Amino acid sequence: MDINLTHTRLLVDDIESCRAFYKDVLELEEVVAVDGVYYEFLAGDCRLGLYKRDLMAGVLGTKPAAGGDQIALTFRVPDVDATYAALQAKGAQFVTEPHDQVNWVLRVAHLRDPAGTLIEINASLSQNV
C-alpha cells in the first residue's frame, strides 16, 4: 500500500501561543500561515501543523470536548477512495467517509488506530481534476 506520513498535526486550543513556541523558541521555519486557524512548519522529513481543535471537531462532525483529540497523523495516498476501501476491508474503523475539503484543496477520510489516535488519509484535489 502506498501511504506516506507527511504531517504531524497538533490539535490545539491556544494556537497563537503554540505558533510562537514553534516559531520563536524552537525556531522552526514557518511555511504556511492562515492566521488564527492553521500554521505549518518544516520539521525534517515531516511537517508539523498546528490546527484549532474545535475546527477539527467540526470536520469530524463532533462537538469540541475538553481532553479531545490532541494529535492527528496525516498520510498522503494516491487515491483516498481506493485506500479507504482497502483499509475498511482490513477492518479499519473510519470516523468520516471520503469527502472533499475544498478549502484545504484535499480529498480526505479519517480513521482511528486501536489506541484512538486520529489518522487522516488525503490526496490533493488537483490530482482528481
Would you give an account of this structure?
By secondary structure, this protein is α+β, with helices and mostly antiparallel strands. It has one domain: 2,3-Dihydroxybiphenyl 1,2-Dioxygenase, domain 1 (Roll). The protein is built from 3 helices and 8 strands, in the order βαβββαβαβββ. It has helices spanning 15-25, 53-60, 80-89, and strands at residues 4-12, 30-34, 38-43, 46-52, 71-76, 94-101, 106-112, 118-124. It has an 8-stranded mixed β-sheet. The longest helix is centred in the first third of the chain and has 11 residues, at 15-25.
Helices, by number, come to 3
Top-tier CATH class = Alpha Beta
Q: Please tell me the total number of domains.
A: 1
Distance between the terminal alpha carbons, to the nearest Å?
23 Å
Radius of gyration equals: 15 Å
Shape designation: globular
Helix content: 10-25%
Tell me the major beta sheet: 8 strands, mixed
CATH fold annotation: 2,3-Dihydroxybiphenyl 1,2-Dioxygenase, domain 1
CATH homologous superfamily assignment: 2,3-Dihydroxybiphenyl 1,2-Dioxygenase, domain 1
Q: Which residue ranges are poorly predicted, with pLDDT under 50 across at least 5 consecutive positions?
A: none
Mean pLDDT: 89
